[in-house]
């Protein structure tokens, strides 16, 4: 990249915008109470801007959520909170989430054996074990340590970096071996991107690599639903209307599915990917499995790296956060590689048997509790040009579809638009 030091705020161009008058009768109206919609509403409320939020479902959170089933906590998809995301502190009381973290690394299952791969900077005691069972070459690992040094302070995505390259092409251009790409980068970051060809745009890779290097992947005590719940709790009770589906979005008004019209000074579309049929998206499914004992490597992700593996990632949820399972019981979340035409139930059964084989558990002691599937879980990000514009005339659009596919991208878009609207409201007073 020719502008290595440049960090540009990508979003709304305010050059031609005029002032607006916002009142309680004509507030800013946000459609969608996912994380971006709630964060935008919270920032506007703090700035003294009247705002209302309309949500079709009977809960807040959109793609981020949790359920409590038979004493087990199921998140909607395997979702974690990277505590190094810079946008969190602006809208969340992070300590109040009572986060607990996974270990900084993983264990790779390959060729019938387990290979520990940990951050050598934060877990130097693991280096001898990694040397004894090494995936890749010394040159690969010197390159990875170099990535960490170059990017550890990277706080945003630089969209003009590595133009036209996918993540896999970038790694190959950096002359990493096919072994380290296929046995570590593909299962680990493929699980993050929800695609296993590493076709995601290379400009996203330094940012997400740096966030894993600078912080921890963590889960809240009350599950990922705690994130949108906390955002909603910061708003007055009458701001959010749940179970109210918007049938029409006009220039200066909304109409719900009962025909009721709501006047709006400004409209913000924060609907999730499920309502956006134009943006290409990756699906996600996670199987929740009870195992009879903790996994050998405590609080650590396991990756399936064999070519025929069904399992992609095993996350020992209750080992990290005991509130995810009843006392004395053990819950793991398993995500799988695409398995042809098999149903999600069939894939879950194959994963259950594979997991039992991995760890030597008796099959009848490994219990498939359920699964959660999201057809449109994450926008595809094969090029920065695929991002949805944050502006359509006088209407705004927020969410990770306008930035990059992550919780941080969703929160960043909310901040940019909220700041833009607040400036216009101030000009109109």
Structural account:
With 429 residues, the chain is α+β, with helices and mostly antiparallel strands. Helix content is 27%, strand content 23%. Strand 3 and strand 4 form a beta hairpin. It starts with 27 loop residues before the first strand and ends with a helix.
Sum this structure up briefly.
The protein is an alpha+beta fold and about 425 residues long.
Write the layout of secondary structure elements.
Elements: E1 28-31, H1 35-46, E2 51-54, E3 66-69, E4 72-75, E5 81-82, E6 100-101, E7 105-110, E8 113-118, H2 127-132, H3 138-151, H4 167-173, H5 178-193, H6 205-214, E9 217-219, H7 226-233, E10 240-241, E11 246-249, E12 253-256, E13 261-263, E14 266-269, E15 281-291, E16 301-304, E17 311-315, H8 317-320, E18 330-336, H9 344-359, E19 367-379, E20 391-392, E21 395-397, H10 407-428
Parallel strand pairs: 1-2, 1-14, 2-10, 7-16, 14-21
Antiparallel strand pairs: 3-4, 5-9, 6-9, 7-8, 11-12, 12-13, 15-18, 15-19, 16-17, 17-18, 20-21
Helix pairs in contact: 1-7, 1-10
Describe this protein with a few key phrases:
single chain; 429 residues; alpha+beta; 7-stranded mixed sheet; 10 helices; 21 strands; 23% strand
Number of strands: 21
Total helical segments: 10
* Residue share in helix: 25-40%
Please outline the major beta sheet: 7 strands, mixed
- Strand-pairing-aware structural class: alpha+beta
pLDDT average, as an integer? 91
**Beta-strand content bin:** 15-25%
Integer-rounded radius of gyration: 22 Å
- Distance between the ends: 43 Å
Low-confidence stretches: 1-16
Q: What strand order characterises the main sheet? A: 8-7-16-17-18-15-19
Principal-axis shape equals globular
């Amino acid at each position: 990249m020719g502008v290595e030091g440049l960090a540009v705020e990508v979003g709304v161009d305010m050059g031609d915008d005029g002032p607006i008058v916002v009142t309680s009768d004509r507030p800013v109206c946000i459609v969608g109470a996912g994380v971006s919609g709630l964060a935008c509403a919270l920032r506007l409320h703090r700035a003294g801007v009247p705002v209302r939020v309309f949500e079709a479902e009977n809960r807040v959170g959109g793609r981020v959520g949790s359920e409590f089933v038979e004493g087990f906590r199921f998140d909607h998809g395997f979702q974690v909170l990277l505590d190094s995301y810079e946008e969190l502190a602006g809208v969340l009381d992070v300590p109040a989430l009572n986060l607990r973290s996974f270990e900084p690394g993983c264990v790779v299952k390959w060729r019938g054996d387990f290979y520990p791969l940990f951050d050598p900077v934060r877990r130097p005691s693991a280096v001898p074990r990694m040397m004894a069972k090494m995936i890749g070459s010394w040159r690969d690992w010197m390159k990875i340590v170099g990535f960490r040094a170059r990017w550890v302070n990277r706080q945003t995505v630089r969209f003009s970096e590595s133009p036209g390259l996918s993540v896999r092409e970038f790694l190959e251009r950096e002359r990493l071996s096919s072994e380290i790409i296929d046995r570590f980068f593909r299962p680990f970051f493929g699980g993050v991107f929800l695609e296993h060809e590493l076709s995601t745009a290379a400009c996203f890779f330094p940012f997400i690599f740096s966030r894993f290097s600078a912080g921890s992947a963590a889960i809240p005590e009350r599950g990922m639903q705690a994130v949108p719940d906390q955002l909603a709790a910061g708003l007055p009770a009458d701001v959010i209307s749940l179970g109210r589906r918007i049938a029409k979005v006009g220039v200066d008004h909304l109409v719900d599915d009962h025909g009721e019209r709501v006047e709006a000074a400004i409209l913000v579309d924060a609907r999730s990917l499920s309502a956006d049929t134009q943006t290409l998206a990756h699906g996600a499914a996670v199987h929740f499995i009870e195992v009879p004992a903790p996994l050998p490597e405590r609080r650590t992700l396991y990756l399936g790296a064999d070519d025929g593996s069904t399992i992609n990632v095993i996350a020992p949820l209750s080992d990290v956060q005991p509130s995810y399972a009843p006392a004395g019981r053990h819950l793991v979340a398993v995500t799988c590689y695409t398995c042809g035409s098999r149903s999600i139930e069939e894939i879950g059964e194959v994963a259950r048997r594979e997991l039992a084989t991995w760890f030597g558990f008796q099959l009848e002691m490994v219990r498939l509790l359920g699964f959660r599937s999201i057809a449109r879980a994450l926008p595809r990000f094969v090029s920065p040009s695929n991002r949805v514009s944050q502006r359509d005339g006088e209407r705004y659009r927020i969410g990770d579809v306008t930035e990059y596919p992550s919780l941080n991208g969703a929160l960043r878009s909310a901040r940019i638009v909220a700041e833009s609207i607040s400036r216009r409201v101030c000009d109109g007073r």
